[in-house]
Amino acid sequence: MELKLQGIEHNFGKKRILNSINLTMSPGVYGLLGPNGTGKTTLMRIVADVLYPTRGKVLLNEQNKDEMGDLYRAQIGYLPQDLGMYNHFSARDFLYYVAALKGLSKKEAGDRIEVLAQTVNLSGEMDKKCGKYSGGMKRRLGIAQALLNHPSILILDEPTVGLDPMERVRFRNLISEISAERIVILSTHIVSDVDHIAKQVLLMGRGELLRQGTIKDLTFDLEGEVWEADVPGRMLAQIEEKGTVVNVQQTDNGLALRVVSKDPPCEDARLVNPSLEDVYMHYFRRG
Ligand SMILES: Nc1ncnc2c1ncn2[C@@H]1O[C@H](COP(=O)(O)OP(=O)(O)OP(=O)(O)O)[C@@H](O)[C@H]1O
Prior knowledge:
Layout: E1 3-12, E2 15-25, E3 28-33, H1 40-47, E4 55-60, E5 63-64, H2 65-68, H3 70-73, E6 76-79, H4 91-101, H5 106-119, H6 135-147, E7 153-157, H7 165-178, E8 183-188, H8 191-195, E9 200-205, E10 208-213, H9 215-220, E11 226-231, H10 236-242, E12 244-251, E13 254-260, E14 270-271, H11 276-284
Parallel strand pairs: 3-8, 3-9, 6-7, 7-8
Antiparallel strand pairs: 1-2, 1-4, 4-5, 9-10, 11-13, 11-14, 12-13
Helix pairs in contact: 4-5
The structure holds adenosine-5'-triphosphate.
């Protein structure tokens, strides 16, 4: 399976939001990473077929999605940022409702709901009202609704917002499990959401894909340029002029810094292995 975005552009009024996005995806997790307002949601809505791009094409296995119509939409599972749930519905009723919208028969829906309740670890909570669900449970229910139609393309828009660290890890493992034979596009501005599970990371800035690659590719870019150093507090401003300070920690003797810089930012700076967070900060430090 191959999903291709060709020359995607999008304008809202006169404002250019997406600029010539070209991307080819195969099964696995694609982590769409970038600051707020850079066009991640807009791009995902285009792939989910709820927004038409101003220009460009989306091709699934070389077929234009607009020509495929329902056949394309049948392959999509979408968890938008603000999935509305009816608080007075039980989780089971909510899933039956979405299944009906997706055209599943009652029997098919019933079987699928039982399987998905287990997948997202909500089997014991299906009769509870959605309004009584915690943030993490709502996200898992959101994933279940997106999976009802066995989608081969799963689009998750900031699925981990508001989750505590434990839920975040659980959620990440769940995404990893369900990505085996699907293309999963996951947008976030939290580096750790994609750090362990993304097959490819897509760095998005101001409507453009700035860099695409495996975590290894991206961290390799900064090989030999990430340093740690213990310095007196007064040196911070001077070091900030030399490179990107990605972390500052107070210590008994001053500051422990992590810095991205081509040259050593100060005497006694030690080279360390680059992380995805270093890469993110390097690209987006100035917003
Ligand atoms: N319907 C709309 N009409 C006009 N402008 C819009 C519309 N939707 C989004 N925008 C603008 O498009 C830009 C990109 O928004 P988008 O939601 O795609 O970014 P994002 O990267 O997903 O941001 P976030 O991380 O905050 O969700 C923003 O400047 C936003 O204000």
